[in-house]
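Students often ask why we bother predicting the structure of a whole assembly rather than each chain alone. The short answer is interfaces. A chain on its own may look different once its partners are present, and contacts between molecules only exist in the joint model. In this exercise we take two input lines together and write out one structure for the complete complex. Read the inputs first and try to guess which parts will touch.
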Amino acid sequence: MMRNSLDKKVQAYVDGLFSGVGESQQLFDLKEELATNLKEKIADYKKDGMDESAAFKEAVSSMGDLSGLVDDMREVGQNKAKQAVYSSMTERIAVAGLITGILLILFGVLTTAMLFFMGLQLEAVTGTAIFVVFGVAIIVYSALTRETSKKYAMNKVRAILYAVAVGLVAFSLFVAFTTGFATGEMYIAISSFMIFFIIGLGLWLGLIFTGTDRRKMVA
Amino acid sequence: MENKISTDLIRGHTDTIILNVLRQGDSYGYQIYKTIIELSKNQYELKEATLYTAFRRLEKEGSIASYWGDETQGGRRKYYRITEDGSARYEQYKKEWKFAKEILNYLIEGGIENDEK
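Now the answer. The structure tokens for the assembled complex follow.
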């Protein structure tokens, strides 16, 4: 699962193809598409008995003349207006999500504080903190699908998985406090915490180790 | 490949060939590339550079649509599927091809009958 040297070589080749081309979401997507297919082609050549460097050379040289595609992407990169149209809708959704998430967290924190100072039993106080859990998950999703000046948007499925992972970790804390206060038993708190935390963390780690670099290069 | 199809001859049919692959199921770049080689019985290779340019053109005109696969290892695949517009275009292209094939055959292989002399 680790990025090996061949992955890096392919990435460097694809980056080199489009060097000096203005960055855009479309270029970012195209590079990922090319890299994935190229890696698969190299793997096939290796299966046929070629060594890695021969397979790489053959795969690259058999691609054909990519200059038309490079010109096409250069045009997209120069046309800022087109890009703005491309990202404005997702951008608005992401911003709305961020605001919703922040407000949910605030609501959760404030109602929990309110109940606490009303002098209720602790187990009744923690219930409203569930809003914080949802708020956190929504913020994670929105932040990842938002294209910024430094990073490209993550694809939606991945972003949802991330939100679920972080949400599960947050939920595990929520469950720990709720059951802990309700029963007054530490071992129950830990056991119920453990299930959600481990699933959430596992998903999270899986995503981290399979991620692609979304950082934009400084032109 | 002893006899090569000239690029000129096939260029006008790139879109039809890709649509023919996609009308039989969603697919991604490298798989489409391999399918085309197979369909030609190993007689023709459509270069990847030509393929990716065609994908962009076909997507822009609405004949195909794309979505990302959820592979986690080795990078995500970008899949393409044919749209209704694309299927209609494919049928139209096929009709045109059948007609052209017949006429070209007359023109290239046909003998001239000299009745008047």
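Check your guess against this: The longest helix of chain A spans residues 80-117.
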